[in-house]
Automatic annotation (TrEMBL):
Residues 81-163 form the Sporulation membrane protein YtrI C-terminal domain. The chain crosses the membrane at residues 12-34. It comes from Paraliobacillus quinghaiensis. This is Sporulation membrane protein YtrI C-terminal domain-containing protein. The keyword ATP-binding does not apply.
Length: 167
């Protein structure tokens, strides 16, 4: 069997040359498209990797912050000092020495509170009020009765009092 010599015909030469040029062009188009897709994939991969690293670092920071907050909340808050504020000292025309002495007497009455947990006294705040209000305070031949206006129980116990002369 004999294969006819088509390569000598001009129409076959054009067909084979067109097929060859088309194959080369198709190969370059394929390489270009593959390069563009691969470049996009690499860029997306790098973005996702950077986002993953950022999320990991945020997670670690939040976890450390959560541990610090847990330690802070597990640590019991205690009362460290007492502040006495007299709201009507100008009205009664009391001097600083009488006010100072009055504050010291109230602090001595409430001295057992220092070092105790805030949670215990916030539940029993009426007891603290009764400690202050049920006793007349005698200073320089005058007797005063204290009335608690406000009581703030935090690390610093703040008591706002109104004084009234008692008989």
């Amino acid at each position: 069997m004999h294969i006819p010599p088509y390569y000598k015909r001009e129409s076959w030469q054009r067909f084979l040359a067109g097929t060859f040029v088309g194959a080369i062009l198709a190969f370059f188009v394929f390489i270009y498209m593959y390069g563009q897709l691969y470049e996009g994939w690499v860029e997306k991969n790098l973005e996702l990797h950077a986002e993953l690293q950022e999320l990991k670092s945020n997670y670690q920071a939040l976890e450390e912050n959560n541990k610090e907050l847990d330690q802070k909340y597990n640590k019991k808050i205690t009362i460290s000092s007492i502040e006495i504020h007299i709201t009507n000292q100008e009205k009664l025309d009391l001097d600083r020495f009488i006010i100072r002495e009055f504050e010291e007497k109230i602090k001595n009455e409430m001295s057992d509170v220092i070092g105790k947990e805030v949670a215990n006294f916030s539940e029993n705040h009426k007891l603290l009020i009764k400690i202050v209000e049920n006793k007349p305070y005698k200073i320089d031949d005058f007797s005063y009765q204290a009335t608690v206006e406000h009581l703030f129980i935090t690390e610093k116990l703040s008591v706002y009092l109104t004084l009234s002369p008692s008989s």
